[in-house]
TrEMBL record:
Residues 1-27, 63-82, 90-99 have a biased composition (Low complexity). Ca(2+) binds at residues 344, 507, 510. Belongs to the peptidase S45 family. Keywords: Calcium, Hydrolase, Membrane, Metal-binding, Transmembrane, Transmembrane helix, Zymogen. Gene3D superfamilies: 1.10.1400.10, 2.30.120.10, Glutamine Phosphoribosylpyrophosphate, subunit 1, domain 1, Penicillin Amidohydrolase, domain 1. Residues 1-99 are annotated as: Disordered. This is Penicillin acylase family protein. The active site is at 429 (nucleophile).
Amino acid sequence: MSPTHPSAAQPSDAQPAAATAPKTASAGNARLVVSEQGDQGPGRLEPGSVDEGASAPAVPEVGAGPQHPAGPAPAAAEEATGSEVGVNSPAGGAEPGAGADVLATAETSVAVGAAVPAIAERPADIASPTSGGSARHKRLTRLRLLLALVVGLVLVLTIATGAGAWAFTNALHASYPLTSGTLDVAGLSAPVAVQRDANGIPQLYAQTSQDLFLAEGYVQAQDRFWQMDIDRHITSGTLASMLGSGALKYDEFVRTLGWRTVAEQSYAKLKPDTKQYLQAYSKGVNAYLATHSGGSSLSIEYTIIGAPLVGKVSHYRPAPWTPIDSVAWIEAMAWDLRDNVDNEIARSLLTQTLSVDQIEQLYPSYPYSKHPTIVTQGALVGSTYEQNATASAALPAAAQQKLAQLSQLLSQVPSVLGPADPAGSGVGSNSWVVSGALTTTGAPLLANDPHLAPSLPSVWYQIGLHCQNIGPQCQYDVSGYSFPGMPGVIIGHNADIAWGFTNEADDVSDLYLEKIDGHDYLYDGKEYPIAEHTETIDVADGQPVTITVRSTRHGPLISDVSDTDKLVGKDAPAARSGDPAQGAAPGIQYAVALQWTALQTNPTMDALFELDRASDWSEFRAAAEDFTVPAQNLVYADTKGNIGYQAPGRIPIRKSGDGRWPVPGWTSAYDWTGYIPFSALPNEFNPSRGFIVTANNAVVGPTYPYTLTTDWDYGYRSQRITDDIKRLTANGRKISVADMASIQNDSYNPQAAQLVPYLLNLKTDAFTRSAQNLLKHWDFTQPATSGAAAYYNAVWAEILKLTFGNKLPNGVDAAVLGFDGGDRWFAVVDAIINQPDSEWWDNPKTTQRETRDTILTAALKKARLDLTAKLGKDVSAWTWGRLHTLTPTEQTLGTNGPGIVKWLLNGQAEQLAGGSSLVDATSWDLSSGDFQVTVAPSMRMIVDLGSFDRSRWVNQTGESGHVDDPNYLDQAPLWAAGQTLPWAFGEHAVKAATTATLTLRPAGP
């Protein structure tokens, strides 16, 4: 019998009675069963070449930097012993059947002044819709070589007959979607036309809304079902049932949070129309599954996990899709866009080596005097409200150790928006909208590029959804980016309005340190029984595992899932959930609970359909009011010439504390007292300046009466975008679509402009000076061809390591502490660069006292040595792109499969412009030890409200999820070059772009 997935945390009015009522009887025995897996670190490919013959002077020792682990190490999965599986799915709350096996883990993490120049250097905007042919030619060449080697790989399929290569090729192509002709599809009431362009992007035309979303489900399943199937197993905590024991700890964590139960409860409260559309979408997916039952007919990945010597799951068959599979996506999206939880943990861990005042210097306040806020007018309510206070930073050592374990676990939880980012660093977005008074078209222009961890296939699916006749039976005419597995369009435009998202980064979660006494927890001097329930997790290559999920009034005890001290580091003492609470009565232990708005039911799915059919500012804001999770910045423009901004979201009001630190859960002093009313959330409509910029910067100034967060992005990108818009519209000039694209590709580094003059003033040896001279005439932009950018970023990394690395706690990964080199560190260094004798420059582990110039000089020398090893001795041959690469990587088998499978599924490395916290936000992570891209624009779009057919868009990879399909990676070269595709919307433009038409017609009785 399969268990249900009770929610680990309910709304305040629906908490389990046992968690909120005073203790009246002893709770039942609780037992947590976990599976311990050994860790195996992945190899790392160093970019560039090594010139072993290069000579260089020794560098003076000024103190060791931090350890730079390769990142979360995947646990090795045990091979199954001939098990077979049947239907396996999270659908309907039932657990998938056991028996699925895979070659490795299910982990989806990847181990990522001077005169101001004009905007960026990359060609932007214009690209042929058929670009990317050369990339396909290379992939076909690779495929032929793969087929030549396949016999030696795994005796794949029918090797004994000598037909292995032929069979593999046939399996590879068996799942490619039918794009022309006619198909009978059950559930349709009338025919639906699916018109695809050369990039495989479908435009759907239907007579009813239900038919439109049913067809969307069918078409998305054609292109992306493997991705959809993996994602629903992630969101339901059933990944181990599909991919084996390596995914067990992730399932334990997701079950502890209760994502699927929240999705079930949210679905029950959705509007009737929303439920109908979700049901129609599910019917479309299932109509596809009905004729594509498994294996190669669905995707080559299913063939791979069933291949001899690779996996033994040849009988795996996905279960039907359900509306809950789609709604649960919202929980995962909210999790991926989290930020503050990681910062709470990092601040607490830093107290091991730093004072609270020093920690505050490493998390400086937003520079309101230097960088803009999003809103300068609008809903800046002036009434008096309960203000948030500041929480204490002091936590016992055992509690700090528990938080360290927890942070490592959080960083490894699978992500549906790309590989997990250890501290949420770099995850953000750019969006801005310009009034028609400032544009060449006389109508608003809106741009958006969400920054997420790279993923293959892309997290986005481009689509157009068109009703042939707009009316009560069919209300949609919308185009943009959707999520595979979710109906509708998430970001894009309809016939009247356009909208874009950036992460608002509001603080919507808190960690509570709970005092546990057996089966009870302490709260305001009384003991309350812990709410408990068990979850049974099926494991493909092992026996089912049963865990006990525990919750207090604040939420689930997520520290129960932090299972081993190995997650913290070799020097960290063991500290499991239930460590003795220092200073408390005997028998009292610590645990960590998570209170998070996404663990309450939400109407966000209603909001998405409302956005898709909104026709004006009023309807847009009504939709935004329902967009409670995750909190996003919404920018707006319409065909009548209006522009606007709305901050939505369910944002808590705290009795005390500002959300920066974990807080005591044994007192009500830090409880949430309610949520900021929507009417008081910031918004703007037609501001007098003529444009609105959101780039994760502060939404409002410090006088706003509520606390949204204290952890904004520091505004370097928003300031540069603002400067670009002002420059491009100065002296009566008007901004064009091409100008908007050039802003998206702007790689100007404001930190370099601040720091380079100090670097050039230092005297160095001749060997170092040859690299130092690269900075003399640099314009501070970072094209892939720039040698100066390569050297500067290497110097910047060394400055941070030499200055701050020796002050971080031992045994805690640098990634856990947010030591990424991004915009927060820009602000930290800005604050001390004019203080040559600041204590921060000094290394406490040496006898001499280091100063700013000591550190900067050593950084110049160390960077010269590092790049000599990676790029060669000749500095004229250095380029930023050789260091700063992105390899499109499939996030299951392409990450953890055998080498030749990775070779098949993954793309070619692209050399990229941009960098961390730049407008062209191709971020790299200092803690990873290299400059490979960890976060990047996941797509780019520019909407022209004067003529939608003049709009532009591009995806990071391609539309198809099928390896070697022409549209698998065809957009990647365009994206990497900063180029975009035409975005057809009107019927005539779509017809002109159409290269294949498939008619879906109702199936007979």
